[in-house]
Specification:
Number of helices: 2
Number of domains: 1
Strand content: 25-35%
Shape: globular
Radius of gyration: 13 Å
Largest sheet: 4 strands, antiparallel
Helix content: 10-25%
Order of helices and strands: EEEHEEEHE
Structural class: mainly beta
Length: 83
């Protein structure tokens, strides 16, 4: 089964919370990309927070995006707090 992105939430410190099918929650750190080409605009936190779902991935208003494969492979599983 393909890992399909169903939601994206910008968190603090340029981290994206990604929710995949079957409620798998992963964290994607955008910081390593912030100094490259079109991604420098993402350094503005107000702009960074405008991320949206687009097809099977995410995008920002001026066209910055990541492939679905990159989002999944470069993200880490979010640890769930046990109460």
């Amino acid at each position: 089964m393909k890992n399909q992105l169903t939601a994206v939430n910008p968190l603090g410190n340029f981290i994206l919370e990604l929710i995949f099918n079957a409620n798998e929650v992963r964290l994607f750190d955008v910081k390593p990309y912030l100094t490259f080409g079109i991604f420098t605009e993402l350094q503005n936190i107000d702009y960074f927070n405008k991320v949206t779902l687009f097809l099977d991935s995410i995008k920002w208003p001026n066209g910055q995006d990541f492939s679905p494969e990159t989002l999944y492979l470069k993200s880490v599983l979010k640890e769930v707090e046990v109460v």
